[in-house]
Amino acid sequence: MKKKIVMCSLLLGTILMAEDSGLFAGVSYQIGKSHLDEKGSTAMQQGGMVVEQHHNVIDELTNGAGIQLGYKQFFGASKALGLRYYGFLDYGYTNFGSKILHNGEDYYTHMLGYGVGADVLWDFINKESQDFGVFAGVGIGGETWIANGKEIQEQNLPKGKASYVNFQTTIDVGLRSNLYKHHGFEIGMKIPLLEQTIFEDKDDNSKIVVSTSDRTIVKHKYSFYVSYLYTF
């Protein structure tokens, strides 16, 4: 009988200490790397056909922030295993330097990532008012890249088209903690899987230019982040 009472007490203690389900909101600081691949060619008629080609491949740091809003739920008596579902919005700024615009000015981008995601949660340490664990999940949504230099593109590549809405999927992994029921802290890594063509121009021409083309591809390679989450 005493053994049963002890076991019930331990089980009840674990349940009381376990992390609760609930709505949550979070903010994060993010730092990572973005990749740019810009390739173009110009054919000019100047006494003869002159063809100029260029190809720029650049990797630069991306700084940004993000917000999350969602719901988490835990299963079983121990509540060690759970799921969370959320919507997210990320922002990132990248300066790719002065090679792209060909006028000495820096070429920079503002990236918005948005969508929904789902993570598996596992708390491997449950202490009084303290839970520690890991998470892994996937996200699906879109990316919007907004770059400067629009007036230069309109002047030199008038038929060029920018793409502002692109499909994206992501993988998320990291470490997490939850303190005093309401306060969560996380360190994680987000990996976008798809590259985006944000500008493309084909067979453009003017009075002195017979043909010109240009294509700019970007990829947000990864971001490390630290997050604070509040559970209501």
Describe the structure.
- It is built from 2 helices and 10 strands, in the order H-E-E-E-E-E-H-E-E-E-E-E.
- By secondary structure, the protein is mainly beta.
- Strands 1-2-3-4-5-7-8-10 form an 8-stranded antiparallel beta barrel.
- The longest helix has 16 residues.
- The radius of gyration is 25 Å and the shape is elongated.
- 25% of the residues are buried.
- About 5% of the residues have low confidence.
Write the layout of secondary structure elements.
Layout: H1 2-17, E1 22-45, E2 49-75, E3 81-95, E4 108-127, E5 130-147, H2 150-156, E6 161-162, E7 166-179, E8 183-192, E9 196-204, E10 209-231
Brief write-up:
The chain has 232 residues and is mainly β. The protein has helices at residues 2-17, 150-156; strands at 22-45, 49-75, 81-95, 108-127, 130-147, 161-162, 166-179, 183-192, 196-204, 209-231. Helices cover 10% and strands 70% of the residues.
Order of helices and strands: HEEEEEHEEEEE
How much strand content do the residues show?
over 45%
Radius of gyration from the CA trace? Answer: 25 Å
How many β-strands, per DSSP? 10
- Secondary-structure class: mainly beta
Helical segment count: 2
Largest β sheet strand count, sense and barrel closure: 8 strands, antiparallel, barrel
Helix content: under 10%
**Rounded mean pLDDT score:** 86
Cα end-to-end separation: 39 Å
Extract low-pLDDT stretches.
5-16
